[in-house]
Amino acid sequence: MATTQSGLVAARLTELTGRAVELVGVTTFGDVTKAALTQLGGTGVFVSALRDKLIEGEVDFAVHSLKDLPTTPDPRVVIAAIPPRDDHRDALVAGAKLADLPSGARIGTGSPRRIAQLRMLRPDIECVPIRGNGETRIGKVTSGELHGVVLAAAGLRRLGREAEIAQFLEVEEMLPAPGQGALAVEVRADRADLLELLGVLDDPDTRTAVTAERTVLNALEAGCAAPVGAYAAVDGQDLNLTATVVAIDGGRAVRKSTAGTSSAAVDLGRDLAAEMIAEGAGTLIGEQAH
User: Fold this and answer.
1) Distance between CA 79 and CA 95 in Å, rounded?
2) Which one of 21, 154, 196, 256 has the largest count of C-beta atoms within 10 Å of its C-beta?
3) Catalytic site residue 114?
4) Where in this chain does the record put each Porphobilinogen deaminase N-terminal domain (predicted)?
5) Which fold has domain 1-84+182-202?
6) Can you give the pTM of this predicted structure?
7) Three-state DSSP class for 127?
């Protein structure tokens, strides 16, 4: 997946600037460990090795899935570009839609956010922790080991496996991870030349939307493994933001929406998080952490 995503960014950069780009593979701890995402602390496990290569000057820029990027800024690096967002939704790969799966169906996902929201929709299903790349996860469905798996729709599209999707889970059913479907192109903070070069890839509306989403996550003091979903839509100067925190058993949730001007993305995200905390969101996050 990382190679595919980096290849898309490289091809677009070459198309726009004529500059050739060499892909350099980097294996992160999150790629090789068998531990569940919740046991890893979640935040940054797919990022630190890439940043090390960046800081050491071994690569000029790094491409991340934005939803994996910690919300706490690292002063050594800066996001030079956030390209136009792909599909933000989660998707179910299965033999039927979620409502039509048998009672007690086994659904593969290691994400507390997806587990919590799946349990809200179908309290009877069994959520099975699962790791591995997209192909591996899909294979567990085709082999009959699982009734289904939930993956990011954007990832399935980038892998060319969109035909496997039985159902797109709309935001009314399952709010995505903050930044889901978007990529972040990161460079060293002292590389003004690359900041300018890579700026051609940036999509202002996507940057605004994911800034609002990630501000909610940061203000809730939750990592990317927390049961937090958020999605912002930008329409001209208008921004609509919805976020949720769900108890891991699916029994309780705090879900709030707000709207305002797109130039106030950070304020909207911060204020929405404060409203959610006032309604007990922090307690739900704390319960999941323990």
Assistant:
1) 39
2) 154
3) yes
4) 1-194
5) D-Maltodextrin-Binding Protein; domain 2 (3.40.190)
6) 0.89
7) strand
